[in-house]
Amino acid sequence: MGLFFRYVGENWSYLLELTFDHVMMVLTGLALALLAGIPLGIAAASNRRLGKIILLLANIVQVFPSLALLVLLMIVFGLGFTTVVIGLFLYSLLPIIRNTYVGLTQVDPAISEAGRGVGMSTAQLLFRVQLPLALPFVLTGIRISAVIAIGVATIAPLIGGEGLGREIYAGINMDNPARLYAGAVPAALLALLADSLVGLLQKGINRGRSA
């Protein structure tokens, strides 16, 4: 452990740069997954037949081993940031789609009928009633996606990406445990931090509703 702390002390600025690159890849992929996943989840909930197709396709993507998927994407998009972000986007989709779908289908039909009874349009009912009620489920999807994306991003260096995976693979290739831990420990902490922050947000929303 002494070697690890010494290495971190001597290279902290470089490790911060790698951490920043890692976070940017994850946030970009996750943001794209949110932009696509929530509408797809809404579409799946509004049309059960379409929903089966959407969930099936998202499940197929999730079944692909992460490295195999990134290599296939590399063939099409080349090496670097863009390929990694597309891979993280695809891997983040399923939890967001599925949890949005589940959250919307769990809304009490009586509440939806009451909204229609007071003259709400379909869009008003969705954005003012159904989505707010489904929000805890959506946040669960985001929570899962964030943790998955942080883990998958560690293999980004294999296809020309940046991030903490550079230290992990350098440590493996050079048989240097200090470098391996210098990449693995921050990546694990990022996953725990993301999980905790979204979890706190969920608890805050639940407390607000029960108050």
Automatic annotation (TrEMBL):
A Pfam cross-reference name: BPD_transp_1
Family membership: Belongs to the binding-protein-dependent transport system permease family.
Record key words, sorted: Membrane, Transmembrane, Transmembrane helix, Transport
Subcellular location field: Cell membrane; Membrane
Name listed for the protein in its UniProt record: ABC transporter permease subunit
Matches recorded under CDD domains: TM_PBP2
Annotated ranges, domain ABC transmembrane type-1: 19-202
Organism: Paenibacillus foliorum
Membrane recorded as keyword: yes
Phylogenetic classification of the source organism: Bacteria, Bacillati, Bacillota, Bacilli, Bacillales
